[in-house]
Amino acid sequence: MAIYIALLRGINVGGKNIIKMAELRKTLEQIGLLRVQTYIQSGNVLFEADADEESLRKRIESEIDSVFHISLAVILRTAEELNLTAANCPYTADEISEAESMSDAESLYVAFLPKEPSKESLARLEVFQTENDQLRAKGRELYLLYRHSVLKSKLANNLPKLDVPATVRNWKTLSKLVALANEMAASSQR
């Protein structure tokens, strides 16, 4: 059994694609996922399953489409992969602290992708980097550091230029998901 984190793209944003977390948990339990729990309303689901990433992703996307009539991308990571994402942040503590001192909102984000983006699509996105908006790609993740508002960032607004879907989480959410996944792992070893 592996612990997975499903990151749903584009639900409960701006009054669109509304899914209640209790209904989502019930739906995912009905397709055989175990110990399903959600974190906040933006589509973060932790569960256990004994299946590979691709088949799980397809089952979850299909079931959400069938039950909620919402077609969306689901990005999956194992607990181990999520821990590595957090541990491998390419920005220094000083860079993050500086960015946070210049912003009145979150500064550090991670865009999760189902697969590595092509070099061409990454290059299309990199042209939107500035001194204030930076990105560093590491495999299936893009680490994004904003020194001002993410809402006004050309880099953030151009993430759709990638050739793969992306779903973005701020560092606080990522850290909480890592903690929840680690708690889940520890409780299954008891």
From TrEMBL:
InterPro entries registered for this protein in UniProt: DUF1697
Classification via Pfam families: DUF1697 (PF08002)
Protein name: DUF1697 domain-containing protein
